[in-house]
Amino acid sequence: MLTQHLLTMKKRTKIILIIVFVLLGAVSYFAYMIYTITAGSEKLTGKVEAVPDAFNTNLPITKGFADWPNWRGPAFDGKSATTGIKTDWNDGLKKLWQVDFLCQDKATASWAAPVVQGNRLIVPGRDMDNDLLFCLNSETGELIWKGSYAATAETSHGPGARATPCIDSTFVYSFGRSGDLVCWQLLDGKQVWRKNIKDQGGVEPQWGFSSSPFIFGNKVIVQGGGTALVLAYDKITGDLIWKSLEGEAGYSASVSITIDNEQLLLVYHAKALSCLDSENGKELWRVPWETDYGVNASTPLVDGNIVFHTSGYGMGGQAILAKKDSYKLLWKNKVIAAQHSDPILIDGYIYSYSGESSRNTGDFKCVELKTGKEMWSTDKIGWGTTTFADGHLICQDIKGNVFLVKPNPSKFELVGEIKTAIEKVTNPAWTVPVVANGKLYLRYLQRLVCYDLMP
């Protein structure tokens, strides 16, 4: 009996120890996740190459048939002008090139998407002490030039850039997470001017400055927060033209809307969606919209004078009818609650991921723009980001898998998929896929992969 009792005690002790270790492991994991989300940086995994020494700044600048010069493409709507893409993905897509040097060292995560004009591809990077900007040959991946400047950066989700650069004529504009707005020469990467928006009263939000530079006439516009919620700089000289509003910056890119033949500015900041006069920054109206943590990160969708905007954290989305001095609510619901995945409008229907980015278990949905009616929803393609090319949606989940979807308001149509289009993804692959001049560019931390989309 004593022996049996001792065996029973040992078994119970073993079970208790296993439970304790499991609980300690779970607590450690969640503590690590909380640290990474609030203060830490996703560590680089897989191959990290040294930055090449050979530059080729003499390569003449060209233009392509379907360039992608700024955030969300030439019309700021997530749509590429590329046509004739390969839609049979049974044998995958041909990989043209891959680089693994955009981020250096271990904790230098950068998420910004590339932009492309002809033979030049611009993409931000980071090392421990500097913001980096790379110009690659879009055809071969070879380095044309590298720009850098010293910048002290916090590490919540990495010190690297979130904002996508913008190519405008012979210049490139980049915006670092610490507030450095920089104009570079597209030809050779020489700095034209550099401003830090904190000098104008800007205050960095928790996850860093993130609004992609928006070229509006002679101005380049970003969000600054603090006493400089929105700033407009002269794109040639870097001189401040105006600053407007006070409050916490959001994480969204600004876009324009045309009302009564006048172009106005839409800014999705931490507390609201505001419409500004682009000439002087005067606020014309605002739609209150306050999420947890001040995260308004998706880009407002504009269709004529209808604007749809959405956020996560249980907020959902709404459509408004915009006028110059006011707006009218069309509908509001929680069908689409996109944390930082941008919706795409096709033939009057919104196609968008919905849900939080921490898990690959979101929903992809189709919603009628005018009514907010959900047409269908699927959980077959995880959670991720979307772009559009040649009548198809190209969706990438946070695991690096890519899906080809045919837009159809009647049903979900999966045309093709490529598993692990990005290799060795251990952290969320948040960066949106970019389609330019018949090529698909996928970015994950230090890695940039180029696929041929043409048959």
Structural class: mainly beta
Distance linking N and C termini? 77 Å
Mean pLDDT: 92
The shape is globular
> How large a portion of the residues is in β-strands, by DSSP E?
35-45%
**What does the largest sheet look like?**
5 strands, mixed
The helical percent reads under 10%
- Work out the radius of gyration: 23 Å
User: Uncertain runs with pLDDT below 50, 5 residues or more?
Assistant: 20-38
- Give the tally of β-strands: 33
- Discrete helix count: 1
Strand order of the largest sheet: 1-27-28-29-30
List keywords for this structure.
single chain, 455 residues, mainly beta, five-stranded mixed beta sheet, four-stranded antiparallel beta sheet, 33 strands, 8% helix, globular
Summarize the structure.
The chain is mainly beta and 455 residues long. Helices cover 8% and strands 39% of the residues. The strands form eight sheets. It has a five-stranded mixed sheet, with no helix packed on it. A four-stranded antiparallel sheet has the order 2-33-32-31, with no helix packed on it. A four-stranded antiparallel sheet has the order 3-4-5-6, with no helix packed on it.
